Amino acid sequence: MGKLEQLQQGDFEGIFRAMTGLPVVVRLIDPPLHEFLPSHEELIEQVTRLRVQGTAEDDQTFAHARTLLAAVEALREQNPMLGLRGCRLGLMIPDFVKIQTRAILNAQIAVKREGLEPKAKIMIPLVGHVNELAETKRLLEAEARAVEERGGVEVEYVFGTMIEVPRGALTADEIAKHASFFSFGTNDLTQMTFGYSRDDAEGGFLLKYVEDRILPDNPFQTLDVAGVGQLMRTAVEKGRQARPDIELGICGEHGGDPASIAFCHEIGLDYVSCSPYRVPVARLAAAQAALTGPERDK
Description:
This protein is an alpha/beta fold. The protein is globular and about 75 Å long. Strand 2, helix 6 (130-151) and strand 3 form a beta-alpha-beta unit. The chain has 14 helices and six strands. It has a six-stranded parallel beta sheet with strand order 1-2-3-4-5-6. The mean pLDDT is 92. Helix 2 runs antiparallel to helix 3 (60-75).
């Protein structure tokens, strides 16, 4: 754990130096737990092979493989994308997010001592209930304050969240009381709103759906304005009612799609985030939306 924290801190220091004076958004750990574990199938193959070969039970390699297999099976989930990930993982295993928070704050302190201006926006993912955000924020604020006290340096940071669970969008007024910013995670929000597994749908029936006009577009490429978009609109309205100064943005593949960016401008988002190669298209689309929107005539 200590080595991992040092590696992360080193990475964050480099980012804060390059971005001095500008805010850096850091999303806390989000992938499903199984992505951090050894392959279940490979472990079964290894244990079976060693057993068939007559390997002694106390053989070090055999014992280690059995222990790993038991651990992986204990944590294995039927639907990991809806399982122990995001804020849920942080609440169940707090050290995961505490390590990240310490690495962020210690990196800020190191860079500030160099005379630079590091600014962090720490994003808590997959919040569906306000209590998930409130409890995670309580844990991390305590960790951040402890780092500042040990370092004797105060740094600039705020906490926000991703809106990627439909319930989070519908209760955005409650969530906004504990968040300085929202970032719409439209990949997961689309997946959960449609009830589609993105990996399975895009590799299976979704192409046929678009070809046959069952769907007008691939909703993972162009934002579904009628469904997902209305959840976003609701979250924007409720979030700003509860916290007028809240900053709102979008991250995910939709952040690089011109049609999706136009809708985000329409509902009043402040920024888009996308893959590096999509940045030129996103900037052009945002400029076009601003020039053709109602604000132009005011």
